[in-house]
Amino acid sequence: MRRKGLASMAVQTVDTPRTPGTGEGHGPAVDLGPAAALSCRECGERFALGPIFACELCFGPLEVAYDLPAGDPEALRARIEAGPTSIWRYAPLLPVPADVAERPNLNPGWTKLVRADNLARELGVEPGKLHIKDDSGNPTHSFKDRVVAQALEAARAFGFTTLSCSSTGNLAGAVGAAAARAGFRSCVFIPHDLEQGKVVMAAVYGGELVGIEGTYDDVNRFCSELIGDPAGEGWGFVNVNLRPYYAEGSKTLAYEICEQLGWRLPDQLVIPIASGSQLTKIDKGLRELIELGLVEEKPYKIFGAQAEGCSPVSAAFKAGHDVVRPQKPDTIAKSLAIGNPADGPYVLDIARRTGGAVEDVNDEQVVAAIKLLARTEGIFAETAGGVTVGVTRKLIEAGLLDPTLTTVVLNTGDGLKTLDAVAPTTGPTATIRPSLDAFRAAGLAH
Amino acid sequence: MRRKGLASMAVQTVDTPRTPGTGEGHGPAVDLGPAAALSCRECGERFALGPIFACELCFGPLEVAYDLPAGDPEALRARIEAGPTSIWRYAPLLPVPADVAERPNLNPGWTKLVRADNLARELGVEPGKLHIKDDSGNPTHSFKDRVVAQALEAARAFGFTTLSCSSTGNLAGAVGAAAARAGFRSCVFIPHDLEQGKVVMAAVYGGELVGIEGTYDDVNRFCSELIGDPAGEGWGFVNVNLRPYYAEGSKTLAYEICEQLGWRLPDQLVIPIASGSQLTKIDKGLRELIELGLVEEKPYKIFGAQAEGCSPVSAAFKAGHDVVRPQKPDTIAKSLAIGNPADGPYVLDIARRTGGAVEDVNDEQVVAAIKLLARTEGIFAETAGGVTVGVTRKLIEAGLLDPTLTTVVLNTGDGLKTLDAVAPTTGPTATIRPSLDAFRAAGLAH
Predict the structure, then answer these.
(1) What is the pLDDT of residues A192-223, one digit of tens each?
(2) B159-241 to CATH, choices 3.40.605.10, 3.40.50.1000, 3.40.50.1100, 3.40.50.410
(3) Which of A133, A147, A183, A356 makes the best surface tag, with the fewest CB within 10 Å?
(4) CB A356 within 8 A of CB A350
(5) Do β-strands B162-166 and B301-307 pair in parallel, antiparallel, or remain unpaired?
């Protein structure tokens, strides 16, 4: 795997990028702020900004390359701090036009970084060192609002009028809500047999919701067909033809964490792995902050977290492999259940390069970790949050994560969306008649 | 009903407040910031700060009276703007110690004020004039986090170690989460036959959760017994013996709305009515901002919103009555289903004094309004939000709410908690085989 490092993403000029067939005509007219081009993560070839996602030459995945603001870091920091309390405070570092905050969108981000001293005590971490980045505070209660907000701006720039995606949960709600507010049509594809709660959440924003008779894989294959067909013309699939822009939204997690730590890098991060894109983009965001002089450079370790029932990256890490062997997912952490994660190899590379690791926990440990976080910090996390907290515990016990260093653990979603995970083991302490005698008899008075 | 107006709550000194029996010894040692005393909302008698809620003389409800910061409004405004992005930016105006933001709590508030131009278009409101104050962004996704955060500080000040409440939903989660994070024991009482989802949300934070065999009224009666019994000693019931402090949390909605409008009063507010406490405290907050010179004084109208199936205040308003006749609730808007609202008479007084009104909508209109808000602004509201949006539409149609003036409509909770309200009428547009032919046949391609 060829990697161009910082040079491919930070302060640089564009050398006449190629205009690929599918993106033709978009090049000069597109205003996506500091986004200068798309570059291939494998061969480094550059393309004009457009709704494309794979390299013409080597089929590698494309990512956004920037002309980032050069100059005085203090001035940039002040400009960010004076900005809105949303991801748009970082607009100068994102593939969005400068006036993005004035356009109708959900204004996600600037979620809480919670100093988790109670949890730290339980895990044996030094007081003041453990933090939860709690993305359940986003508008539709998952980190997906961050990435969809970028895709929306790309969709506007490319003249799309419909936002689309395949999804089994969080993404469907994020796309439906963002499209509604922005005045876009939306058309979301889901497996036809999803739980009713998830269907309601996907449908309530009034867009088209199409149940596909088949598995999630069938849904994905159908969406790929649709992109190449006239029926899908004018459609922005946030996680397919808009993916290079979409993925950049995860950089904002890195920016917020560092700013909320007082413009400091954390020493260790624990990040969930679904496709692996979030982890790689957080690493990209951290390196940009260093490059721009917004934080002081120092080593940091990135740890990836998976559920045992879908742990292809963890398995490859432990086996010392560079490639990821696909798995058939079987875990309650459904938002992480991607058996063939596109960014798996990049995740392995980052975990190894930074001195981190990739670990997994079983479903029982996920449930226990959800409850632990709720009981200690009052944060009710999605199963993905149970995975990261559970993995954090395991890494500490294994001596891989240093409990004396500043550590940030991500919770990327909301427990309200995965009630089934804890319902069987969560209920009243007691059920009594409404009398003081019954209350005392139940041993509750003290 | 005797009312002391601004004099009872704003810049003033305390004239040796009475020390009631139950509050004895708390007086001078208690640091609750600018809170100076409790004063009776009926007879005006003053008492030292303590865990009491009814006047010794006339049994009227007590509320917090303040020594609010006198001096330069510009300086106070600057101090607030430099504060944390939570309700604690307003700590100088709340019954909490100055260092409140450093104490472990959920840091609620500073939720979004959403400019709702799409909704405005549908309702015939001028562009830029309609805003949704969306409190689903709070840590446990309802406005209850605001009030519980105040009660928590009062509980600390009075040496309580257990937080308690009776609840059928939002409050249970807010108390459980706040207690967990603050290191308090919690004991929450619910009717034993609540839906499983609500039970899980109340239980997941690990406090005691007690199902009571009886109705919500039985639960409440039991809690009143418990407060007077040694078994309940050291217990802070957030909405009973800590109610005067708890209720003040709703003032922060007024503060945030005005600051987010650029330190301007809105012309019209539409606020849901359960006990009516939220509406009366928002009015109190607006008057404080005027008194302190933080906003320019101008007339504003306050509108109350109820569900038809529990509309005692609306009925009294329409009948021209000063008293509220209790009703037996029967509505899907369960978080507003208080048949005998304690603050009903105060609400009537405020609606009439400000030139507002109280209106109600039926369950069908609530569901339609939830969907309207989701479809236009990407906000999935709780049934209470359906009530306020539905009432807004009705008030405009009746010519009572002026569509050319700045209007703020409250959404106090999250649609994820009341999925059942919309589930029967919300689902996929179509279910198809994964093929382009099936897609075209379903009429989805265009």
Answers:
(1) 888 888 899 999 999 999 999 988 878 988 99
(2) 3.40.50.1100
(3) A183
(4) yes
(5) unpaired
Q: Which residues of B touch A179 (CB under 8 A)?
A: 378
Residue type, B284: K
**DSSP character at residue B68:** P
Those of residues 43-82 in B touching chain A at CB distance below 8 A are: none
pLDDT under 50: residue ranges of chain B:
1-27
Query: Which region, left, alpha or beta, applies to residue A376 given φ > 0 means left and ψ of -120 to 50 means alpha?
Result: alpha
Can you say whether residue A111 is alpha, beta or left, with left for phi > 0 and alpha for psi between -120 and 50 degrees? Answer: beta
Q: Assess A113–B contact: CB distance below 8 Å, yes or no.
A: no
Q: A379: helix, coil or strand?
A: coil
How far is C-alpha B235 from the chain's CA centre? Answer: 22
* Residue in the structure block whose two tokens are 């989802």: B197
**What ranges do the domains of chain A cover?**
112-141+249-425, 159-241
Distance from CA of B218 to the nearest CA of A (A): 7
The pLDDT score that the predictor gives to residue B28 is: 52
Chain A CB within 8 Å of residue B376 CB: yes
Distances (CA, A) of B48 to A77, B14, B370, B429: 47, 10, 44, 61
Structure tokens at B5: 């107006």
Q: Which residue has the tokens 């609010």?
A: B68
B138 CB-side CA count, 13 A = 34
Which residue of chain B comes nearest to A431, CA vs CA?
A: B211
User: Which are the contacts of B228, defined by CB distance < 8 A and separation ≥ 6?
Assistant: none
User: How would you classify the pairing of strands A46-47 and A35-40?
Assistant: antiparallel
- Angle at the Cα of A205 from the Cα atoms of A204 and A208, rounded to 5 degrees: 90
Judge: B431–A212 Cβ closer than 8 Å, yes or no: yes
Residue A124: count other Cβ atoms within 10 Å of its Cβ.
Answer: 10
Q: From chain B, pick out residues whose CB is under 8 angstroms from the CB of A82.
A: none
Domain A112-141+249-425 top-level CATH class: alpha beta
pLDDT given at position A195: 80
What the block records as the tokens of A344 is 């798996």
> Looking at residue A5, what is its pLDDT?
37
Element of type H or E holding A156: helix A144-157
A342 token code pair: 């596109």
Check A210 against B429: CB less than 8 A apart.
Answer: yes
Q: What is the mean pLDDT of residues A236-240?
A: 95
Interface of B with A in 277-316 (CB under 8 A): none
Which residues make beta-bridge pairs with B188? B165, B209
pLDDT, tens only, A259-308: 999 999 999 999 999 999 999 999 999 999 999 999 999 999 999 999 99
Q: Which residues, 6+ apart, have CB-to-CB distance to A262 below 8 Å? A: none
| Beta pairing class for A235-237 and A268-272 | unpaired
The answer to whether B193 faces chain A, any CB pair under 8 Å, is no
Going by C-alpha positions, the residue among A242, A49, A248 that lies closest to residue A155 is: A242
Yes or no: say if B375 and A209 are a contact pair by the CB < 8 Å rule: no
Q: What separation in angstroms does the CA of B423 have from each of A148, A196, A437, B26, B188? A: 25, 8, 41, 50, 28
Q: What pLDDT does A138 receive?
A: 97
pLDDT digits (tens, 9 = 90+) for A7-64: 333 333 334 444 443 434 444 579 999 999 999 999 999 999 999 999 999 999 999 9
Report pLDDT digits (tens) over A401-446.
999 999 999 999 999 999 999 999 999 999 999 999 999 999 887 6
- Distance (Å, rounded) from C-alpha A223 to C-alpha A229? 10
For residue B207, give the amino acid letter: G
- Flag whether residue B263 sits within 8 Å of chain A, measured between CB atoms: no
How many Å apart are CA A361 and CA B56, to the nearest integer? 58
Measure Cα distances from B210 to A421, A431, B220, B230, B285 in Å: 22, 6, 13, 18, 35
Q: Which CATH architecture has domain B112-139+249-425?
A: 3-Layer(aba) Sandwich (3.40)
